[in-house]
Amino acid sequence: MSSGAREREKAFVEHCKGANGLDKVVLREVRGSSAEVYLYGGQVTSWKNEYGEELLFVSSKATFKSPKAIRGGIPICFPQFGSHGSLEQHGFARNRFWSIDLDPPPFPTNSGNKAFIDLILKPSEEDSKIWSHRYEFRLRVTLGPGGDLMLTSRIRNTNTDGKSFTFTFAYHTYLFVTDISEVRVEGLETLDYLDNLKGRERFTEQGDAITFESEVDKIYLSTPTKIAILDHERKRTFVLRKDGLPDAVVWNPWDKKAKAISDFGDDEYKHMLCVEAACVEKPITLKPGEEWKGRQELSAVPSSYCSGQLDPCKVLQGG
Ligand SMILES: O=P(O)(O)OC[C@H]1O[C@H](O)[C@H](O)[C@@H](O)[C@@H]1O
């Protein structure tokens, strides 16, 4: 690569140090949007639009210190979502040190995006004691030219003993919202969900868009691939698109639970909402040599534009 080309690459992808000297990668796009990814957890901790406005929530009490996962951004839950299973809550990928993947296998489509980073997680000997499988988890984080944030996970079973493995997964996305009581989620109405606050009992959501006035911890099942999160006060809509991840988790701890979480401010629940592309109800099983792929794409657009885009009826009604 010529030094000019290298300089251009550096303009899109910068390797540096973040909080507590942890390795961090900053992605930048020409129009001014940016994203930050920590190798600790393979975790996106910042996503800013072209005006420099932060779109993800990270707690002011986040510790950025192993073994605690970073509270905010987009932790990766693997190989277990939640506490159902033999592993620690949400699995271990979120508190492991990932590496830069210097030679990732090619993607079928080459989109021409320049601001991206490839990370990889493989089990250490210690990890093999708690989950006795060999795998390669490749994560590509891409910032598109329009400021969209795309995460693609490719997980391959590299067991040499002929054994399959099974996992659940989530992109535990903490969106920054102005005021949770003014937020509406569209795309999950009328769906079945498992309520984590009621021992994962199954219910059916009502016909209205979802709003928030108390603690919520639900796993919506077999959802559409597109979900919209409308922040009325900021007139901003997040659009979450997903692929390979049938479920969607929605979580806000509200005031009481917030106080019980040590790395979360008492009032911070007002400014965040987790909407997570996930695969929880039906775990994924991979045979040796098999690979699974799961994608989440986020964009943030002015509300009026997006509502219309999502629901043609609303455009017709002028709503
Ligand atoms: O505190 P954490 O382990 O990061 O989990 C935070 C939350 O994550 C998910 O959204 C779960 O559905 C919740 O039950 C859990 O409380």
Feature tags:
single chain; 319 residues; mainly beta; Beta-galactosidase, Chain A, domain 5; 8-stranded antiparallel sheet; 5 helices; 20 strands; 12% helix; 39% strand; globular; binds 6-O-phosphono-alpha-D-glucopyranose
In short:
It contains five helices and 20 strands. It is mainly beta and 319 residues long.
Number of strands: 20
Taking Cα atoms only, what radius of gyration do you get, to the nearest Å? 19 Å
Low-confidence stretches: 312-319
Structural class: mainly beta
Protein architecture, described:
There is one protein chain. With 319 residues, the chain is mainly β. The chain has one domain: Beta-galactosidase, Chain A, domain 5 (Distorted Sandwich). It has five helices and 20 strands. Strands 5, 10, 11, 13, 14, 15, 18 and 19 form an eight-stranded antiparallel sheet that branches. An eight-stranded antiparallel sheet has the order 6-7-8-9-20-17-16-12. It has a four-stranded antiparallel sheet with strand order 1-2-3-4. Strand 2 and strand 3 form a beta hairpin. The N and C termini lie far apart (52 Å). It binds 6-O-phosphono-alpha-D-glucopyranose. 6-O-phosphono-alpha-D-glucopyranose is lined by residues 82, 89-90, 196, 217, 249, 251, 274. One of its GO terms (molecular function) is carbohydrate binding.
Layout of helices and strands:
Layout: H1 3-12, E1 13-17, E2 23-28, E3 34-38, E4 43-48, E5 76-77, E6 99-100, E7 115-121, H2 125-130, E8 135-143, E9 149-157, E10 165-171, E11 174-176, E12 183-186, E13 192-195, E14 201-204, E15 216-220, E16 226-231, E17 236-243, E18 247-252, H3 254-260, E19 272-286, E20 291-302, H4 303-310, H5 312-317
Antiparallel strand pairs: 1-2, 2-3, 3-4, 5-10, 6-7, 7-8, 8-9, 9-20, 10-19, 11-19, 12-16, 13-14, 13-15, 15-18, 16-17, 17-20, 18-19
The chain binds 6-O-phosphono-alpha-D-glucopyranose (G6P).
